[in-house]
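Hey,
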Amino acid sequence: MQDKINMSGIKYPDLVEMLRFQAKNLTDHTVFTYLLDGESDEQSVTYTELDEQVQMIASRLQHSGAANERVLLLYPPGLDYIRGFFACLYAGAVAVPTYPPDVTRLERTLPRFLSIVNDAKPTIALTISPILMMAQEFLSQYPELSGIEWLATDEIIMEADMGSNGGDNWEKPDIDSDSLAFLQYTSGSTATPRGVMLSHGNLLHNLDSICSAFEVRESDKGMFWLPFYHDMGLIGGILGPIYCDMMNIMMSPLDFLQRPLRWLNAISRHGATISGGPNFAYDLCVRKVTAEQKEKLDLSSWKLAFNGAEPVRADTLERFYEYFAECGFRREAFYPAYGLAEATLFVSGGQRDTYPNIHTFSTEALAGGEVELAEETDGLQMVSCGSPGNNIEIAIVDPGTFAPLSVDLEGKTDIGEIWVVGQGVARGYWERDKQNQQVFCARLEGNLDKKYMRTGDLGFLMQGELYIAGRLKDLIIIDGVNHYPQDIELTVERCHPGLRPGCSAAFSVEVGERERLVVIAEIARSNKLVAIQAQGLDLQPDIIDKTIREAISRQHDLRLHDIVLLKPGTVPKTSSGKIQRHLSKIGYLEESLDVWVG
């Protein structure tokens, strides 16, 4: 695990002092405005109000002996989540952000929730009254929940407002930069997510890197819809604005997914300058926002449109720009970035007000693990994820020998595993000593003095900028040739209008002692299928199967062993929407996938 953090250059000794400093100096400045309906119904909180409310909850936590204990956060999106999270920090507790299981999909959402509870072993759970009432029926069914003290923070605040002691008894905990702040549970490619241990110092250093890389200015205003229980939403959307002195507008991710126009409307109406999300969010806006709706949008205030958490695609950037340029959106606003929970959040990013570097590379060379520029029509376009952040070092490493790959005269390396070292790298996984040695204590061949964190991602450097090729564990190797599943999945999704974008998985299976390619893909929802049929297109499964096989053969020179078409909404995904290829493969082998038969 990582060595003790040097906090030189960081503005605050811990996250509690960060919020208290802002509350003292910015007092009545609004820090968060939450759009309750995703549109015009708003709820805001100032720095002073947030500090006072957090102290009320923290005082109750301290009374319950929460110091150094894990405290589960079980909230819907909203300001209550922010209050509960900071209350844990104010009480010297370790926050465990999660989200309530979906009562309509308990078979899919409850197991992950229970696995987090079993792993973190929280002694207290914070939530609000409506969820606490619903949770009562689960407590008797699951022993791991019955031993937890459940507190409704909205009731604590209401009681304090009615004359109880409130936060008068709160005492600042004995914490410093090395104190554990919270466990960020990874989405997980299996049913056992791991808790990434993030200290106050990890978070403050990463926040400083983000603030510097984004070149945050006094006039900036944020707009976030990303889930609070994931690193980009929690660290980027809650902690980042406080660290950078930036007011932030928020909405529920469900409100965005139900109507993507709400995101763009919020940017337009509030004059937000910094906002973003995964690549799929930009594609979704192009597909769902009509020409008539565009006429009312003004996106000229949007100065930094970050794109991360999944592969950044050049054609997505171009389509979004072309579609929304008439609304004032600028190409230079795009800001591709790379990061992961194990590095707190941010690892590398582009340059503000500069269109990212996009190059075309030889697919034949990439298949052999090499990097070679090609003509635009003859290769694969890849988007740069920029340069490493402050005090972050990246090494491209041969994952078999641990030898660093050298940089050639053109400033390129071959494709290798991305290793990271820096003050923002997490302390390790909660109670996973063996994995911590493997992931967080990696050492380069010939240099045993420095410990790196292995990301598990494949990529390369060119002219000091990072390009992402894929996941090491997801890499498909057939007949000695490397194939990146996200490229195959993109080919599948584009070859027939009856397939859902972002809802396919490519992986290999062993057939007769040889690896063979399998693809699963969701069919579009019924309303779209009706529209496609009205256009005269054939939706017979065998026709779609043939179309997919021909596209993969043409684009990737691969023979497809099997294709399985699934019902909408059934491909395995993480809680943040990433495809779970490992679980997809298990479902295929066990024949447990929800097959669409036409």
